[in-house]
Structures are given as C-alpha cells and as structure tokens.
C-alpha cells in the first residue's frame, strides 16, 4: 500500500494545526472564522454529502441566525471562487441534496496523508515503521484547528485527531524500543509521560526504557507515581499490562526498594501533613469547562506572586461543592504539604456561619499547634497560620462562604498555596482586594443531567425511556440537587417508570414538593429558602415579583413596572439578586431566572399576596403597550386608532428608541417575552389589554414574519376581543389572521378570516374599516385567481379611501388593483397604479410596503420588456428591504433580479440570485420556494421570448 505524498502542485489543505490553504506552495487567505470552520467541516467529511442542517449546526451550534442558510450559500459561493484556481478541478465543491459534497484527492489533505502513512506503517519492519510514523507525526504543526478552538467543529474533531497523534507517537516509540534505542528514548519519554500522566502505555514504555538503560529505580518510581495518580484521581489501579510489566521488573531484582517512599514517610513523621478533604461525590459528571479553568489557574502559578485564589460561585444546589471537592481530589498530589478544608456554614439554616477565628483554631490544630499555644487574638492567629504555611504547598478549600470578610483571614500569605472558595454570592470584595478569580457554575446540559440521573439512580433505567429522561432533566432545570433527588426517588421505587415522575413534576404547583425527600437538609425548597431569607426586605419583595414575569428574560425597565418603582431602583435590586445567584445575567442588563427558582418565587408570591398577580401583571402589560406602540411607529405608520403616545413620559425606555434600528432591536430582544405576556394576560383574563397588545405587534410581524407566533398571538387576541365583545378588536384580529394565512400560503383559510372581518367592518358603519377589509379581500381573491371579484373590492376600497382623503390607505388599494390589471394584461395601467402607490409609500416612509411595491414595479416592467428598468426597481427594492430588515422582500428582490438575468442569458447570475431567494423563502417557510426551486431546475432550458418594448 503506497502512502499518499503531498501534492507537488495545486491545492494543499492543512488541518493538523491552524487551518491553512496553500496553492502551489503559497498560502491563500480564507477570511472569517465562519468560512474557515465551513471549509474545515467539508474537508473533514470530504467526498461525502454534508447536509445544510449539519453545516448550520456546526457553524452556529444552538443559536443560528434566521438567515443562516443564506449566509452558508454565500460562503459556499466564496469557496467555489477560491477553488476555481484549481487547474485540474481538484477540489470541486458540488451541490448535492440535502447539502454539499467536497470532491478532493486524499493527498491534498494532511489528515488523509497522515492516515495513509499510519496504515502503511503496519506492514513495515521496525526500522521503516519508525521512519514512516515519524513522517506522519511531522504533519502535526501544533494543536489541531487551533484557530477554531472555540467552535463546535473543534469540539467534535480535535480530540479524535489528537488521540490519533498520540497513538501514532506510541507506535513510533514501540518501534524505536524494538530497535534498541532506549537510551535516546528516556529523555523524550520522560517529558511525554509528564505531559500525559494518565497514558499507561507511555509510562510503560518509559519504564521499559529506564530498565533497559539500567535505571531500575526510576522505572519502579514511574510505576508508583502513576498508580498514585490513578488511585487519587480516578479511584482505579493500573491496567493488567502495566501491572504485568512491573511484576516482571520486580522478579528480576525483588531486593530493590523505593527510597523516595521512605523519605516521604520520615518527613511525614516530623511534620503533620493534613488531608482533610471530604470524600469526592459519587456520580460526578460534566463540568469539563470549569475543571479546565481550575487546571489552567494551577498551571499559571508563579513563585513570588500573590497566592492563587478562586471563588466557585452559583445558585443553591448547582453543585459548587461537588465541583470544588472533585477537583481538589484530582490535584491533591500537586500539594505534598497537604489539603486543609473548612465548612464555613455561610448558608446553613440551623447553625450560624463559622467565625474566622473558629476556622483558624481548627486549622492550626491540624497543622500541629497545641491548643494552649493558639493565640486568642484573631490577627495573631492569622499571622501564625500564615507563618506555618509559608514555603509550604497546601490546598485550602473553604466551602459555603457567606461573605468576603469571613474568608480574608483564612488566606495564606505565600505564593505556594492555592485557596478555593465556594459561595452562593460572588464575593466581589475578594476580587477587588485579593485578586480572586471568579468561576461561575451554571446548570448542567441535558446530556450531563441525564448522565447524573443515571449514575445517581438506577443505572440503565433511563435508557429505556429516553424521551422521558430528557423531559425529567428539563423539569429539574439541570440543577444537580434536583436531579439527585429525582434519581433518589426513582431508586427508592424501582418499579416506578420515569414517565410517572415526569407526570408528577409537570404540575408546576406540585414540582417543588415532588423534589423533597425525608432528609430535612436535602430539599430544593430548603436550599432556596436559605438564600431567600438572607435577603433584605426590599430585595425579597423584588424576588417574589420577578417570578411573575411571563417570559424567560427581563430587563430593569420591566421589573420597574412590576415593582412600581423607578428604573435605577429596579436595576439595583436586580444586581443584588444576581450577586445572591437568585437571578442570572446572561447578557449585559438582561436578566433571567432558573425554572425552579421561578416556581419557588411564584409560590412565595402566592403565600404573601392572596389577592393574586393581576395588578403586577397589569403594570407589566401597560409597560409593554406603551413601548410597543412607540417602537412600531418607527417601522411603518400605524393603521389603527390605538395610541399610547400620551403615556410615553411615564416609561423611560421610550426615550432610548429613536429610530427604526432601535425599534427592531427592542422587538427582537423582547419578542419571546411579548408572546409569553400575551398568553399570560389571556390566562389571567386581562382581555381588555390582550388584543391591543397583539395589534401593536403587527408592524413588527410584517417585517420579521414569525408565522407560528403570529398565528398563536392573533388567535389569543381574537379570543380576548370576543370575550370583551369589542368589534374593532374582532375585525383587526381576524384581519391579522387573514394576512398571516395569506402570506404563508393558505389563501382559503385567509379568505374565511377576511370575510368575517369584512362582515364586522360593515356592521360598524365606519367606512374606513370597510375599506380596509375590502383591500384585504381584494388581496386574497387575487391569490385565489378570482380576479373579477378582486377588482370589485379593490375599486370599492379605492373610491372609499379617496372620498375619505386617506392617501396612505389608498396606496394599498392601488397596489392590489395593479395586480388585477397585470393579470388582465393591462400592464401600463398596472405600472401607473404602482407608481402612484410608490410615491405615497415614499412620502410616509413605509419601507416594508415600499419594498413590496418596488418589486411589483420591477415585475411589471420586465413583463413589458423593459428589463433594465425592472432590474433598477428590484435593486432598489433590495436596498430598501435591507434597510427595513424584511427578509421576505429581500427574497422577492433576488428572485426578480434572477428573472432579469435569465432573460439576459446570464445563467450564473440567475442561479446565484435564485439560490439566495430560495434559501430565504425556505427559511421563512414561504410557498414561493416551490416556484423558485422549479426555476432553478429548469435553468438549462432556453429563455422565453422577450416581450416587445413599449
């Protein structure tokens, strides 16, 4: 089998280090990290189809943007331009449903060359095998994909490629040992064994090299060091192969002893070595990021600098102590002078926090100080403690600290020791005055939560009900304490199904009760109680009210409305709750709350406020009404009589929304909360507020088009309008449902809603509502190809609006009438109507509708044979759609530009435009995707005959 050689010319791709692309030996630039990650993904899965969904998941992990497909299409086009320089067509990036395939020769990718060399080496003798494996190892230029280490791609592939390198290295060492090169290997293997202390094969190879070089004591010492580390960190012994090697060494000369062990024992007799760590928790899972952060801190220790201090902080029950104790056991061997431990009882319910003097007394006794020799003064005790730890390498674990003042006297003064503190508070005082590093601990991921449930309960039980297991992890919110209690309940009744416990926890009113067990100190509610009771009254009041927020996140402005206070006061209260880890701050000035803490908060509110949550919720909804009304007016003119402008002065947030960008930003950020608030208000019976709040979202919905949310909230709004018998609310809600069903490809359903809206409009006797309903009827009848009926409604609406002098609404009627004229073949009349509408929409700055009309102008112009004019319209429509943020109008513009390019015979441009349009239409769930897909499929057909110019 021949190994693949590096290509002499053409492209070469290097993944075994920072990603590099070389062409004829010269480096080629790649651009953004996203493009680099996309290329790396295609290279690592070369010569096979990589789906679009997989690419998106790889590039954006869990939160892709709405335009992710469009972005990937653009990046693919950029890679194709890069590959166009390949003279031999290698590589070639082709489109193959459901994604893309990178066709490329293996020798052009360093990973494939390395794999080929490793496979070839298996067939060779020791001399050749060593040389070939050394050649393979030279392909690694550093950490794999080092420039993409924060990406999901790195997490998926880098560990496997690093393992391949280490296995190759071990095979090369084995060949060198076979060749008798043990003297040369001792130095190399010593460094490797230190760097990878848990790889038993490397340690075994080093023992063998030492033994053959006559260093028998060193060989045995290496075995004992590994055995100690494995026992301390993993609770296991060396494997059978290594034990067998050690026993053979002993049989060769069983009189050998380990002098290092005798020396350690003698030292231990002279000076107490504390080992106070509590047992490591069983079933510990996950926390790789946190453990790695602590490892990095330890690795950065420098002599002469201040002692290293880390604060592990997080909410009650999140597993701070478990993390700290687990890590402390793993690194205990790094602290030969011992490990000190103190439970500071900062948040215990039955006992007061441990005073620093008491903690010092206990630790001084552990360090060998007689009770009568311990100074009575706190400062003197601290001085003695620091003197004893000077020049000693000790790990000090201070668990459950209440505040910085409790911890500060317990800090060693030397640079050799490390202090690890856990607390429910952030202890910012230690950060400012002592240079502490804060390590926040979050809840567990779903996979880790399920693993903890499995290890702590009945192993294998969850595998039989994977769906129920994932739901149980979700209901516990990834909180380790809740997960362990749930696992204990499953273990206590083995016959009980996981789904049974899920059903019990699904009831929010019963959830915290279900997470109690007989042990009074082991309860989610009890853990939360201790944190809550430590709050000052004003912060406790805020905590109870914050739980009423219907959405997942909230701002100080929303909390100010809930608490009937000003924004600065609300911000201070949220900061205090964040310091106590009762709320989180996932991004600056936007806060959240763990699901179980939210349930607990609502229980507290219900106990303290039997009158219910109606009034606080009404205050929050009023806040949303005022801000939404203010923000929507920057997107397009209001088409109703709802007006909260007189109340803007009472809502400070309005002052910060001064244009379209800020308005869209506010709607985007608050959208999940607005949807949740509408549903909560409906459930609470606040129907007089629900339908107006729904209506105030219309302008945003027209820009972003979240179809499912649109239907959901307008259905809620319609139910509320009917509950209060409000005819205007009824017709607006039905009209909004008609719009969404019409635009999402269900015109028959839309017609039913529009017809009912029209009936209500006629019953009101208001000509403006009647005209609005007729515009809507005309639009949907056009989609249904009932053009004669559509014309009647459009002309009636136009007459009504002109009689009312309402030019803005007149423009909508003109646009619809233009479509009727277009299908009737009266293209000049259609274009004239559209130009009238265009002028109106420009004047009122309704960009979203202007983009629609410009696209319509472009379409009619192209039908008239005025292709260049049509392209100008579509280009301007695209510019306007980009300014207002409407993805659907952008897609329509790309489609129109593709149509024009097709007529010119520019098939490459047409394909690019249509592919972009298709990606947006598919992402938006619009039926227009079918039409564009058909055009792409027929792209090789000759263009249709051009119409005569007029």
- Helix count from the secondary structure assignment: 43
C-alpha geometry: flat
Uncertain parts: 253-270, 302-306, 944-950
User: What structural class do helix, strand and pairing data support?
Assistant: alpha/beta
Question: In whole angstroms, how far apart are the ends?
Answer: 71 Å
Number-wise, the strands total 14
Arithmetic mean of pLDDT: 86
Query: What percent strand?
Result: 5-15%
- Major sheet: order of its strands? 8-9-10-7-11
Descriptive account of the structure:
The chain has 950 residues and is α/β, with parallel strands linked by helices. The protein contains 43 helices and 14 strands. The strands form 4 sheets. The protein has a 5-stranded parallel sheet, with helices on both faces. Helix 39 packs parallel to helix 41 (887-904) and helix 41 (887-904) packs antiparallel against helix 42 (907-924). The longest helix has 27 residues, at 152-178. The termini are far apart.
Structural descriptors:
5-stranded parallel sheet, 3-stranded antiparallel sheet, 950 residues, flat, 43 helices, alpha/beta, 61% helix, disordered C terminus
Question: TL;DR?
Answer:
By secondary structure, this protein is of the alpha/beta class.
Topology:
Layout: E1 11-14, E2 20-23, E3 26-27, H1 33-44, E4 49-51, H2 52-60, H3 68-83, E5 92-96, E6 99-103, H4 110-121, H5 126-137, H6 152-178, H7 182-195, H8 200-212, H9 216-234, H10 240-252, H11 259-270, H12 288-299, E7 308-313, H13 320-330, E8 339-343, H14 356-366, H15 378-389, E9 395-401, H16 404-407, E10 418-423, H17 428-434, E11 437-440, H18 446-456, H19 466-475, H20 480-492, H21 498-506, H22 511-514, H23 524-533, H24 537-546, E12 553-554, H25 556-563, H26 567-579, E13 584-587, E14 590-592, H27 595-608, H28 614-632, H29 660-684, H30 687-695, H31 698-704, H32 707-723, H33 727-743, H34 747-764, H35 767-783, H36 787-804, H37 807-823, H38 827-844, H39 847-863, H40 867-884, H41 887-904, H42 907-924, H43 928-937
């Amino acid at each position: 089998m021949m190994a693949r050689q590096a290509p002499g010319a053409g492209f070469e791709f290097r993944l075994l280090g920072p990603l590099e692309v070389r062409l004829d030996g010269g480096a080629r630039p790649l651009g953004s990290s996203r493009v680099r990650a996309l290329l790396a993904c295609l290279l690592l899965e070369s010569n096979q189809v990589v789906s679009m969904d997989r690419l998106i998941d790889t590039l954006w992990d869990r939160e892709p943007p709405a335009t992710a497909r469009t972005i990937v299409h653009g990046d693919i086009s950029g890679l194709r331009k890069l590959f166009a320089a390949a003279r031999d067509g290698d590589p070639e990036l082709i489109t193959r449903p459901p994604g893309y395939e990178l066709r490329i020769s293996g020798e052009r990718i360093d990973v494939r060359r390395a794999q080929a060399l490793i496979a070839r080496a298996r067939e060779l003798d020791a001399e050749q095998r060593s040389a070939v494996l050394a050649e393979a190892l030279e392909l690694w230029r550093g950490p794999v994909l080092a420039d993409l280490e924060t990406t999901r791609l790195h997490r998926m592939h880098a560990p496997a490629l690093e393992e391949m390198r280490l296995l190759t290295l071990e095979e090369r060492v084995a060949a060198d040992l076979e060749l008798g090169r043990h003297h040369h290997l001792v130095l190399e293997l010593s460094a490797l064994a230190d760097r990878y202390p848990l790889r038993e094969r490397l340690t075994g190879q080093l023992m063998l090299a030492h033994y053959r070089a006559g260093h028998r004591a060193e060989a045995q010492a290496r075995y004992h060091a590994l055995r100690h580390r494995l026992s301390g960190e993993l609770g296991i012994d060396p494997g059978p192969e290594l034990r067998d090697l050690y026993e053979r060494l002993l049989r060769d000369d069983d009189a050998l002893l380990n002098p290092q062990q005798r020396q350690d024992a003698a030292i231990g007799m002279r000076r107490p070595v504390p080992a106070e760590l509590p047992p490591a928790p069983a079933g510990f899972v996950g926390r790789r990021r946190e453990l790695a952060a602590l490892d990095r801190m330890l690795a950065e220790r420098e002599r002469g600098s201040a002692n290293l201090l880390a604060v592990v902080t997080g909410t009650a029950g999140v597993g701070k102590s478990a993390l700290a104790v687990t890590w402390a056991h793993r690194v205990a061997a790094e602290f030969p002078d011992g490990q000190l431990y103190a439970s500071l009882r900062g948040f215990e319910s039955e006992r007061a926090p441990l005073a620093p003097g008491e903690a010092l007394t206990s630790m001084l006794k552990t360090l060998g100080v007689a009770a009568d020799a311990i100074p009575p003064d706190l400062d003197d005790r601290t001085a003695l403690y620091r003197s004893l730890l000077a020049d000693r390498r000790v790990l000090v674990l201070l668990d459950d600290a209440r505040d910085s003042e409790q911890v500060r006297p317990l800090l060693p003064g030397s640079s050799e020791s490390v202090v690890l503190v856990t607390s429910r508070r952030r202890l910012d005082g230690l950060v400012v005055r002592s240079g502490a590093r804060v390590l926040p601990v979050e809840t567990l991921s779903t996979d880790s939560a399920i693993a903890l449930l499995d290890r702590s309960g009945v192993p294998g039980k969850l595998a039989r009900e994977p769906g129920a297991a994932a739901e149980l992890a979700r209901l516990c919110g990834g909180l380790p304490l809740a997960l362990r209690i749930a696992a204990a309940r499953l273990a206590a009744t083995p016959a009980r199904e996981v789904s049974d416990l899920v059903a019990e926890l699904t009831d929010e009113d019963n959830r915290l009760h279900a997470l109690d067990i007989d042990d009074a100190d082991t309860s989610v509610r009890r853990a939360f109680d201790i944190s809550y009771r430590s709050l000052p009254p004003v912060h406790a009041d805020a905590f109870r009210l914050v739980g009423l927020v219907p959405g997942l996140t909230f701002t100080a402005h929303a909390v100010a409305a809930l608490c009937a206070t000003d924004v600065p006061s609300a911000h201070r209260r949220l900061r205090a709750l964040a310091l106590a880890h009762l709320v989180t701050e996932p991004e600056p000035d936007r806060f959240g709350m763990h699901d179980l803490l939210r349930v607990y908060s609502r229980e507290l509110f219900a106990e303290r406020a039997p009158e219910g949550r109606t009034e606080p919720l009404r205050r929050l909804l009023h806040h949303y009404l005022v801000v939404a009304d203010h923000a929507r007016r920057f997107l397009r003119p209001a088409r109703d009589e709802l007006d909260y402008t007189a109340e803007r002065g009472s809502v400070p947030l309005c002052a910060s929304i001064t244009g379209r960008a800020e308005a869209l930003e506010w709607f985007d950020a608050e959208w999940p909360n607005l949807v949740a608030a509408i549903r909560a208000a409906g459930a609470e019976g606040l129907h007089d507020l629900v339908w107006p709040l729904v209506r105030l979202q219309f302008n945003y919905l027209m820009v972003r088009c979240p179809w499912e949310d649109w239907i959901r909230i307008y259905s809620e709004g319609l139910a509320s309008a009917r509950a209060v018998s409000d005819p205007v609310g009824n017709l607006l809600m039905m009209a909004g449902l008609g719009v969404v069903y019409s635009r999402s490809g269900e015109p028959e359903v839309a017609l039913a809603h529009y017809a009912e809206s029209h009936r209500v409009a006629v019953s009101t006797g208001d000509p403006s509502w009647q005209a609005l309903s007729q515009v809507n009827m005309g639009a949907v009848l056009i989609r249904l190809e009932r053009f004669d009926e559509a014309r009647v409604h459009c002309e009636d609406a136009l007459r009504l609006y002109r009689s009312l002098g309402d030019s803005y609404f007149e423009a909508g009627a003109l646009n619809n009438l233009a479509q009727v004229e277009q299908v009737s073949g009266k293209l000049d009349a259609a274009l004239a109507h559209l130009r009238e509408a265009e002028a109106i929409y420009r004047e009122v700055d309704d960009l979203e509708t202007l983009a629609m009309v410009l696209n319509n102008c472009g379409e009619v112009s192209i039908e008239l044979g005025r292709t260049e004019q049509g392209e100008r319209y579509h280009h301007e429509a695209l510019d306007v759609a980009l300014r207002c943020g409407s993805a659907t109008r952008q897609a329509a513009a790309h489609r129109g530009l593709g149509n024009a390019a097709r007529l010119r015979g520019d098939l490459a441009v047409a394909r690019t435009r249509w592919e972009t349009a298709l990606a947006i239409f598919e992402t938006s769930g619009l039926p227009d995707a079918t039409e564009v897909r058909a055009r792409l499929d027929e792209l090789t057909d000759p263009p249709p005959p051009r119409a005569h110019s007029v």
